[in-house]
Design brief:
The complex is a heterodimer of chains A (about 260) and B (about 700). The relative contact order of chain A is 0.19. In chain A, helix 1 (about 20-30) crosses helix 10 (about 220-235). Chain A is built from eleven helices and eight strands. With about 260 residues, chain A is of the alpha/beta class. Chain A has one domain (about 5-135, about 205-260): P-loop containing nucleotide triphosphate hydrolases (Rossmann fold, 3-Layer(aba) Sandwich). Chain A is about 40% helix and about 15% strand. An eight-stranded mixed sheet of chain A has the order 3-4-2-5-1-6-7-8, sandwiched between helices. In chain B, strand 30 (about 475-480) and strand 31 (about 485-495) form a beta hairpin. Chain B is elongated, with a radius of gyration of 43 Å. Classes of the chains: A alpha/beta (about 260), B mainly beta (about 700). The interface of A and B includes residues 181 and 186 of A.
């Protein structure tokens, strides 16, 4: 059994949609048949639990880092999707883990049976020592110059550490004031993994605690996420179980499962 | 952004509204504010009576969903058309304005208004904007009953019929419903009477005549009062109460009359031991200058032949309606003496030939019947009043003699020649088991009479139910009003000098004495002169242009009392086309009806004189309508007519059009700015920018190498 493939979802700039991408990508991969663990490693502004409605969990990544709990004992199951989540803890001061604490976490991650681990990380740089634990990094950006420049800086950092990375353009509105995809591609000098359209379904999903991908898989945003998930799953040699898109009834049922399966 | 969309769509909606306004002004009735397009339609009538509250409605419908306002407020103002003074003002309830047409009620008291033309104005305030609509209407006087000329004989003889006359006029501007007239008499005797006369159109007058018995039997002062009532719009309307005093003089021949009305008791026919009275008159009447024959039938109940002698005693004058009495001097054993006998003046002295008998003696075998006739002669100069004739009857058989006095009552009336003459009489027949009444009705010698009513009033004590009473000989109904059984006779027409008879019977009368109290009154409504029953409320003449079609509307209030056809005829000079120039509309009493004529003017400007005739029956009203035809160049694009009574503020409409154009311009400016802000619409590859980004990337890499 191979160790989990850990994907770091990152950005140099805040507010570009890392958590949105993380949550929905993990959700899509899980629903496609993979065993996925989503770790909220954004120690500054943990919000995965907010997206999934599990912010009230009484344990999480901090407990594992501190050795107060095991990974297995801290994972929370998101019942509507079957996704396992190691939530962050919303506390007053951000927790800056030490290298040893991170090693403790990764040690347990690599002992787990997950196919993929999606790690939502805080904006900015991450300790270089940890890069070796990631199989790949996703750099999330928005189609405007400042965000893209930040993405290039992060990409340069990954390049220096020989960490593979790909670019995900989020909040793409297809408007004249945005950068053209080719411009971003030329600037990034790498692969654009996905272009996620700006869609109301995302803030609605956050408001309703139902990830956009779970709410409507037919939406353009969800389609782009699904394609990204398929890329990773097939790339790693797993079978991508393309399930039928959820119709209205399925979505209603999912919503009910979410409501009554919570807690 | 959404606000900008809303503004744009609102402007478009406004333009659409204005377009509607051009082609369908019949529904575009409000002074529409451009920023809040909605219709207000006020549903007032052309006229209202000044009585109670006026209740009406108005309808509001928003023309755009952006006009929805949950907090609109409404104000009603009633404005005097003559001086623009606000006669009444109050808030009206109005709910949220949206695209669903909603009708709301409003009302105002007519006590604040007078007989004039007013405008009802409903104003709705929605935020900073106020829309209003005005409707014109007339306030008309509700039916008003006035009684005038109430009079009678100020000094009637004792026992004479008293005749009261009065005139009832409707001084309102609406027709009444049928009118009840109540007459009451108080004094030594009291009586009440009432009748229902037909409805009256505005300013119509009806004369009513009451002829009553039992209100002159005792000397003294009497007061009669009369009042009329009708119902209009569920409200009882009463006339003024008029009074009339009269006095009945005392006896002139000596003695004194009773001070209170005697109560009839006991049987009026007292049978003798050997003789049965089969039939006899109880109460008869005749007019002065006439004579009448009445009969009495006797049957012997003796086993032997008997001799019956008759004689007429002193005829008493002015003693109607007293108890059956016996002459004390002729009373015999077996006949109860009455203590209430009153010997009145001997009227026989006036004219010994007043009563004569066909025979003074009869010889009857066992069980044999025979009849005698009584001739009553009332010369022209005979004092009207009631005469009581004592008929002395003496029966002798087998050396046994019995005597009694049978009193017969005669009422003598003067023949005025002005009113129909009523001569009622009541007899007991069928071996006194049946009371038979005959009413002789004679028309005045110099005029015919039509549509008059008689009422025969039978005291309740006479019968146990109305089913014992049968009326025939003239159209009649038998009812009970709680005090009397009333036979109402409706006489359609009576030619000059002719007479008819009406008959009734009462089977097994319970109290024969009360039969003397049966009286008959009559009411003669004299046909009033025809008045106009058409009140023109509104003739709407809009502006005309050459070769132009518009609508002339006329509204009238029909104040006749029966359903009728109203005919509208509009005529014009050659070259003027009138569609539907003759229209007939059915109307009921107090109904408002309108006729609309489509008029197409000729090609030359000027003044056209149109003629409008509105008629109903014999009532016709004609109007000349000058129609000013303006040159077509000045014509408004409006092509449809206007609802009569609803004014459209043309100036406000023009302002609305201008404001709509401004809104459209604002929309275009906004669209230009918005499109510009959107840029080309798609991300555009710009090589210069891409090169710049690459330079930045290289700069980042170089900096990393330096570190």
């Amino acid at each position: 059994m191979s160790k989990p493939y850990v994907i770091r979802v990152s950005s140099q700039k805040g507010g570009v949609g890392k958590t949105t991408a993380s949550v929905n990508l993990a959700m899509a991969m899980s629903l496609a048949g993979s065993k996925v663990l989503l770790i909220d490693a954004d120690f500054i502004n943990p919000s995965v639990g907010i997206h999934l409605g599990i912010e009230g969990a009484n344990t999480g990544v901090r407990a594992v880092l501190l050795g107060k709990s095991t990974l297995e004992g801290s994972v929370v199951r998101h019942n509507p999707s079957g996704l396992d989540v190691l939530p962050g803890e919303i506390v007053s001061r951000p927790h800056n883990p030490t290298v040893a604490q991170m090693q403790r976490l990764f040690k347990q991650v690599f002992k787990s049976t997950y196919n993929f681990v999606i790690m939502d990380t805080p904006p900015g740089f991450f300790p270089d020592e940890e890069f070796g634990n990631f199989g790949e990094a996703i750099i999330v950006t928005t189609p405007e110059m400042s965000s893209c420049v930040s993405a290039v800086r992060l990409a340069n950092d990954y390049d220096r550490s020989h960490l593979k990375h790909g670019l995900v353009v989020n909040k793409f509105r297809n408007k004249g004031y945005e950068l053209h995809i080719n411009e971003m591609e030329e600037m990034y000098d790498g692969t654009i993994l996905a272009v996620l359209p700006d869609s109301e379904i995302v803030p609605i999903g956050v408001s309703e605690r139902i990830p956009a991908y779970l709410m409507n898989r037919r939406a353009p945003f969800s389609s782009a996420i699904g394609q990204l998930a398929e890329k990773y799953i097939t790339k790693m040699g797993f079978e991508f179980q393309a399930k039928k898109s959820n119709g209205l009834l399925a979505r209603i049922a999912a919503a009910f499962r979410l409501l009554f399966g919570r807690g | 952004m959404h606000r900008a969309y809303a503004a744009a769509l609102l402007a478009l909606s406004m333009l659409a509204t204005l377009a509607i306004g051009q082609s369908a002004t019949a529904t575009f009735t409000a002074n529409v504010n451009v920023f809040c397009p909605y219709n207000i339609l006020i549903n007032t009538q052309a006229s209202y009576p000044i009585l109670g509250n006026v209740a009406s409605t108005f309808t509001v419908q928003g023309l755009s969903s952006f006009c929805s306002d949950p907090s609109a407020t409404g104000q009603l103002q009633i404005i005097d058309n003559a001086n623009s003074a606000v006669a009444y003002s109050n808030e009206v309830d109005v709910g949220p304005i949206n695209t669903v047409a909603t009708t709301y009620n409003f009302q105002f008291p007519t006590s604040e208004l007078v007989n004039a033309v007013y405008n009802a104005q409903i104003s709705l305030t929605s935020g900073p904007y106020t829309n209003s609509i005005t409707s014109s209407f007339q306030m008309l006087n509700a039916p008003s009953l006035d009684i005038t000329g109430f009079s009678g004989d100020s000094s009637p003889s004792k026992g004479a019929l008293q005749t009261f006359t009065a005139s009832i006029t409707n001084n309102g501007q609406y027709a009444t419903s049928p009118i009840t007239v109540d007459l009451s008499v108080s004094g030594p005797e009291s009586a009440t009477s009432n009748t229902v006369v037909s409805a009256l159109s505005p300013y119509q007058t009806e004369n009513v005549i009451f002829q009553l018995s039992g209100v002159t039997d005792f000397s003294g002062s009497y007061t009669a009062s009369i009042v009329a009532n009708t119902i209009f719009n569920s409200v009882e309307i009463s006339s003024n109460t008029e009074t009339f005093g009269y006095s009945v003089p005392g006896n002139t021949g000596g003695g004194s009359g009773p001070t209170s009305s005697p109560t009839p008791t006991g049987p009026s026919i007292v049978q003798l031991p050997q003789l049965s009275i089969i039939s006899a008159p109880i109460f008869t009447s005749l007019t002065t200058g006439s004579s009448a024959v009445y009969s009495m039938t006797f049957q012997s109940t003796s086993q032997s032949t008997e001799i019956v002698n008759f004689s007429v005693g002193n005829v008493n004058f002015g003693a109607a309606s007293f108890s059956p009495v016996l002459h004390p001097s002729t009373a015999t054993s077996g006949i109860r003496k009455q203590q209430s006998f009153v010997q009145l003046a001997a009227a026989a002295a006036q004219d010994p030939a007043l009563v004569t008998l066909s025979t003074k003696s009869l010889v009857l075998g066992p069980g044999q019947q025979s009849t005698i006739n009584l001739f009553f002669n009332a010369p022209q100069n005979l004092t009207p009043g009631t005469y009581v004739v004592p008929l002395n009857i003496t029966v002798s058989a087998a050396n046994k003699t019995n005597s009694q006095v049978q009193f017969l009552t005669f009422s003598v009336q003067s023949n005025s020649g002005q009113y129909p003459n009523i001569q009622p009489q009541v007899s007991l027949t069928n071996n006194t088991h049946t009371a038979s009444g005959v009413i002789k009705i004679t028309s005045p010698y110099n005029s015919s009479t039509s549509n008059f009513t008689l009422q025969t009033r039978i005291p309740l004590g006479v019968a146990t139910s109305a089913s014992q009473i049968t009326a025939y000989g003239a159209p009649a109904t038998v009812t009970s009003n709680g005090a009397y059984y009333v036979i109402t006779w409706n006489i359609g027409y009576l030619p000059v000098g002719q007479q008819i008879y009406a008959y009734y019977t009462i089977e097994n009368p319970q109290n024969q004495a009360l039969l003397q109290r049966v009286n008959t009154v009559f009411v003669v409504p004299q046909a009033p002169a025809p008045q106009s029953v058409l009140r023109v409320l509104n003739i709407n003449i809009p502006t005309f242009y050459t070769n132009y079609t518009n609508e002339i509307a006329a509204s009238v209030l029909y104040t006749g009392i029966t359903q009728s056809q109203i005919t509208f005829v509009l005529t014009g000079p050659p070259g003027t086309l009138i569609s539907g120039s003759t229209q007939q509309i059915s109307a009921s009493s107090n109904q408002q009806v309108s006729a609309r004529f489509k008029v197409t003017t000729p090609s030359t400007p000027g003044t056209e004189l149109l003629g409008l005739t509105i008629s109903q029956g014999n009532s016709t009203q004609s109007y000349s309508l000058p129609v000013v035809v303006l040159p077509a160049a000045a014509a408004s694009p409006a092509s449809a007519g206007q609802h009569p009574g609803i004014s459209i503020n043309v100036q406000m409409k023009d302002i609305a059009i201008a404001a709509g154009a401004a809104a459209a311009l604002a929309l275009l400016v906004y669209a230009a700015v918005y499109i510009r802000s959107q840029g080309p619409g798609r991300p555009r590859y710009r090589k210069d920018r891409s090169e710049q980004l690459i330079r930045i990337r290289e700069q980042i890499k170089r900096s990393d190498q330096v570190e």
